[in-house]
Design goal:
The chain has 199 residues and is mostly helical. The chain is built from twelve helices and no strands. 72% of the residues lie in helices and 0% in strands. Pfam families: TetR_C_8 (PF14278), TetR_N (PF00440).
C-alpha cells in the first residue's frame, strides 16, 4: 500500500479516536473527522463511503489479523490434548495482535462495532471449529452443542478484551494467556486459589 495512503488512514484513525474521547460516535460527523485529521473531505471519501463504512473496514481489518493468528496454530494431525495445549501460544499471539492494534480495538469497543465484532467472533468460532480444527478434535463426542461453546467462548473473549483495555493493558499478553488457560484447564475455583468447602 502506498505510504501516503497509510499515513492518511492513520491520521483519520487518530482523529476519530481523539473525537471519541469528547463525544459519542453517533454525533461525530465526517467534517469533524476531516478537520481533526487536517485533511479535506474529498480525501476522506477516497478511502471511505462514510463514518459507518470506516467502522466496518476497521472491524474487517482487525478480524482478518486475528483470524490469521488463530489459523496459524491449527494442524490436522493434532490430538484433542495437543489441540488444547496449543491454545496458550495462540492466545498469547492473539493478545499481542490486539495490543498492536489498540487504536482499532478502542474504536470498536466504544461504538456499536462491539456488537457486530462479537457476532463475527462467535460465527468465526463456529466456522473454524467445523472447518479448520483437527479431525481428531471434531470427531470427539462433546457434552454440549458446539454453537453454545462458540457463544460462551466469544462472549468471554470480548469481556476479557474489555477488561484488559479498561485496565490500560496492565497484564502482558503472556500473563493474560496464563490466566485464561489456567481457568480453562483447572476450572475457576482451583485457578483462583479458592478451595471448595468440605462441608
Amino acid at each position: 500500500m502506498d505510504r501516503r495512503v497509510v499515513k492518511t488512514r492513520k491520521e483519520i484513525r487518530k482523529a476519530l479516536l481523539s473525537l471519541m474521547d469528547e463525544k459519542d460516535f453517533e454525533v461525530i460527523t465526517v467534517l469533524d473527522i476531516t478537520e481533526r485529521a487536517n485533511i479535506n473531505r474529498g480525501t476522506f471519501y477516497l478511502h471511505y463511503i462514510d463514518k459507518y463504512d470506516l467502522l466496518e473496514k476497521y472491524e474487517q481489518e482487525l478480524f482478518e489479523k486475528l483470524e490469521h493468528v488463530v489459523l496459524a496454530y491449527l494442524k490436522d494431525d493434532d490430538t484433542m490434548s495437543e489441540f488444547l495445549h496449543k491454545r496458550y501460544p495462540t492466545i498469547v499471539h492473539v493478545f499481542h495482535c490486539l495490543q498492536e492494534e489498540r487504536e482499532l480495538l478502542s474504536i470498536l469497543l466504544k461504538t456499536r462495532g462491539i456488537f457486530t465484532f462479537q457476532d463475527r467472533v462467535k460465527n468465526a468460532f463456529i466456522y473454524m471449529f467445523r472447518n479448520y480444527t483437527p479431525s481428531k478434535v471434531t470427531e470427539h463426542q462433546f457434552s454440549y452443542p458446539v454453537d453454545f461453546l462458540a457463544l460462551f467462548g466469544s462472549a468471554t473473549f470480548i469481556s476479557v478484551i474489555q477488561y484488559w483495555l479498561k485496565s490500560d493493558m496492565k497484564q502482558t499478553p503472556e500473563q493474560l494467556a496464563k490466566m485464561i488457560t489456567d481457568i480453562i484447564f483447572k476450572g475457576p475455583i482451583e485457578a483462583f486459589g479458592v478451595l471448595p468447602s468440605t462441608k
